[in-house]
Specification:
With about 170 residues, the protein is an all-alpha fold. It contains 4 helices and no strands.
């Protein structure tokens, strides 16, 4: 296998891992949506699941483009906040998240936080390892999107710890 073929295979493997992670995270959010008691929590998890589906589609399209020899797609500008990876809590290497009927809304939000930390770390690491600027840009964009999911969940986590019920998560985005 030539060096360019090896580099392509490495990027395709990263995209496969990323796609699998997005699928599993979306499945978690869909399970959480069915489990939590608060309607606003259900809405939040539904919205996050839809975002993860968008990430899946982006990753699948990119993998297809690479396999067809079309190269890297140039990511469109995302509506992402400024962020610093150092702001995230300590990296969690292993994430085993599942929601059970007896779990509380706080448990579901906590699991979601761990998933988003893991996703952010994965994409940040992939960006650092990328040899192609377009790949780095894509992974940086995905890291920012996962950071935004973390922020949404963290606001709900703080609210649950303080008051118990989940408030309108969209109001915090204004």
């Amino acid at each position: 296998m030539t060096a360019p073929e090896q580099a392509l295979e490495k990027q395709l493997e990263i995209l496969r891992l990323a796609l699998q992670n997005e699928i599993e995270t979306r499945a978690f959010y869909l399970r959480a949506q069915e489990t939590v008691k608060s309607e606003k929590a259900r809405d939040m998890f539904s919205s996050l699941a839809n975002d993860e589906r968008t990430h899946e589609e982006l990753l699948a399209s990119q993998a297809e483009a690479l396999q067809e020899g079309s190269g890297w797609m140039v990511p469109t500008a995302a509506d992402d906040p400024d962020y610093s990876p150092e702001d995230l809590p300590a990296r969690m290497a292993v994430v085993e998240a599942d929601v059970h009927p007896e779990d509380s809304d706080l448990d579901a939000v906590s699991y979601g936080l761990r998933l988003e930390i893991n996703s952010h770390t994965f994409y940040s690491d992939a960006a650092k390892q990328a040899d192609v600027e377009e790949a780095r840009s894509l992974y940086d964009q995905l890291a920012r999107m996962e950071r935004r999911h973390f922020e949404i969940l963290y606001l709900q986590y703080e609210d649950l710890v303080r008051t118990g019920p989940i408030t309108g998560y969209l109001e915090s985005e204004a």
